Amino acid sequence: MKAEYVTYRNESPYPFCPGCSHTLILDRLNAALGKLQLDPHKVVIVTDIGCSGLSDQYFKTNAFHGLHGRAITYASGMKLANPELKVIVIMGDGGCGIGGHHLLSAARRNIGISVLVLNNFNYGMTGGQHSVTTPHGGITSTTRLGNLERPLDIARTVAANGASYVVRTTAFDKELPNLIAEAILHEGFSLLDIWELCAAYYVPNNTLNRRTLEDLITRLEMRTGVIQKEERDEYARAYRKQTALQIGKPTLRSKSLEPHFKTGLDHPIRIVIAGAAGQKVVSTAALLGTGAVLSGLYATRRDDYPVTVMTGHSVSEVILSPEEIFYTGIEQPDLFLGLAPEGMKFSRRQFAALTERSTLYIRRDLLPIETRARTIPLDMGRVSKKEAAIVAVAAMLHHADLYPMPALQEAIRLKQRPEIAGETVRAIENSSKVIAFG
Asked: Which end of the chain is more exposed for a tag (fewer CB within 10 A), N or C?
């Protein structure tokens, strides 16, 4: 026999100020839950910072308390992870302002969470500062001469952005338990913009009471009651339906690399490839590392490039080692490959750290350059821009004898489409000839 839940409240008393409407609203929420008789284990109350953020701890349901303005993000994640949960967000007008983008996105997606906005027109926990819903002319601790801003109409805003169930009412509405219950049962994003009284700050500053609160709604020409109610696909269920065939499957097919080439490398080698956008530096560094793994080595890679496309520096740091690598940074390179001024400038500290034991492979057109490293010029005049990095790396690989060239060729065939791989392999066949001397 199913147990009857007389109350969803625990025995802890509310901590709110005398006259605060939060008490009234939470009692209405308790009544709504009692009407629905939901399993408390399948209900989550999510809050953030502010007086309203204290609410979750007074119910026998699951609870989650997070950062200011972020309650909706946590709630959305819970609903996506478990669509069967009834997720209820309790937040204030302050949280709506701070997390406005999250509010709009949840409404737009129509994700099935229920949001109760305890809207008292100010930040009550921190001293009564004005918020995004403070009415024009409202007196707060930060608008002593009256608020100059137009208040945010939370209900109409989320309705315009796709919320499928929207209500505006007050904490004194006798139908509030039924409205909350309907919102919880609604399959989609629901929001109740509940106007209420902050007895500590906004009420004494603005002589607000139950009657004048209703007059304020009329003066601002804001509708009350059900603002929007429609049926459309709830996001969490639609997402599950779309991805049903992928559940339990890996997102990427695992493909291991089995070493079958040999190398005489017996110590770590730290390599910096300093080039420019369009030279395929990053993809070349990946091929260099893949060839190393095929040769029984450990390999790491770090890349750096600007947010722009086809302009600026492109730099990769690669470490090859017969032993496991625990630190991927390179402060003093063993090998430095200079392919473009942009990369040289970006890597100037590492370039300055080169010693007599280091080797610099550098395009001849970037010489002369002052360095203590052994310098190996590269004649790249006939090499196209998109092949610059792979040809130079192949030349370095051959000259430094890091691992067998066939390992790099196999890496190319594994990582590139057949038609591209053929071009790349042909490009590196005579790569050793770009080394001018040394």
From this structure: N
What is this structure's pTM? 0.73
> For 220-241, how does the pLDDT look when each residue is reduced to its tens digit (9 = 90+)?
999 999 999 999 999 999 999 9
| C-alpha distances in Å from residue 96, one per residue of 121, 234, 249, 322, 343 | 11, 22, 37, 55, 45
Using a 10 angstrom Cβ sphere, with 0-12 exposed, 13-18 middle and 19 or more buried, the burial of residue 373 is buried
114: helix, coil or strand?
strand
Distances (CA, A) of 181 to 28, 33, 177, 327, 402: 10, 7, 6, 55, 69
Sequence ranges of the domains in the chain: 21-242, 269-434
Cα–chain-centroid distance for residue 192? 27
- Cα gap 146→25, rounded to integer Å: 28
Greatest Cα-to-Cα distance within the chain, rounded to the nearest angstrom: 92
Reported confidence tier of residue 2, pLDDT bands at 50, 70, 90? low
d(CA 291, CA 285) in angstroms, rounded, equals: 10
**How is domain 21-242 classified at the CATH fold level?**
Rossmann fold (3.40.50)
* Sheet with 313-321, side-by-side order of all strands: 298-304, 313-321, 269-276, 335-338, 359-363, 374-378
Angstrom distance (rounded) from CA 400 to CA 271: 11
- Two tokens, residue 90: 């309790």
Interval 178-201 mean pLDDT: 98
Q: Which H helix or E strand runs over 202?
A: helix 202-206
The fold of the 269-434 domain, in CATH, is Pyruvate-ferredoxin Oxidoreductase; domain 3 (3.40.920)
